[in-house]
Design a protein that fits this description.
Layout (H helix, E strand, L loop, with lengths): L55 E7 L4 H14 L8 H18 L3 E9 L2 E7 L14 H4 L4 E9 L2 E9 L10
Antiparallel strand pairs: 1-2, 2-3, 3-5, 4-5
């Protein structure tokens, strides 16, 4: 018996935990981008009103009982810089005053007046920034719609709140005199 027999004892689990492999330094493959179903804007909100390629001015006011008078005065000063000598100032002031008064009466904490011009027309748009209740904005006041230099007017409701607008002719035709 020249063979050496190695004696092994019973198989027993080790008394210390096995050594774990080190974590991977890089992931095997970066996660693939998921295709977007719709393109979204950067903020996730619908795009706001954008006026380009023309003169524009935005005036903001607290929605209080004096806002209409303040807005009409500041809007008149802003449009005076645009040099429209034939603009009927009375119609313009009455338009701004009426639209702002309607926006304040509809609710909200602030009111903004947006002015823009193009091709001898002046756009006056008033927003009341009321996002809680989204009822219909209501009609444009009758005293604005019947003014001689108002070419078009309207109202709508969107994500910014209620908006009332009027387009005024800055070079109206002269009044016809009946003989």
């Amino acid at each position: 018996m020249s063979e050496v027999v190695e004696a092994r004892g019973p198989k027993v689990p080790p008394s210390f935990p096995p050594k774990s492999p080190p974590p991977q330094k890089k992931p095997v493959e970066p996660p693939r981008p998921q295709p977007a179903t719709k393109p979204k804007s950067l903020t996730g909100m619908p795009p706001r009103l954008v006026v380009t390629s023309r003169r524009a001015r935005v005036l903001a006011f607290r929605a209080d009982q004096w806002a209409a008078k303040k807005a009409a005065g500041q809007a008149a000063l802003a449009v005076a810089e645009w040099d429209y000598p034939l603009l009927d100032e009375h119609d313009f002031l009455k338009t701004v005053h009426g639209l702002v008064h309607t926006a304040v009466a509809a609710g909200g904490k602030r009111v903004s007046v947006h002015l823009a011009d193009q091709n001898n027309k002046i756009l006056v748009m008033v927003l009341n920034h009321q996002t809680g209740e989204q009822d219909d904005a209501g009609p444009v006041p009758a005293e604005v719609a019947v003014l001689r230099t108002v070419d078009a007017c309207g109202s709508h409701t969107d994500h910014d709140g209620h908006a009332w607008w009027a387009l005024l002719d800055a070079q109206p035709r002269p009044k016809k005199h009946l003989a």
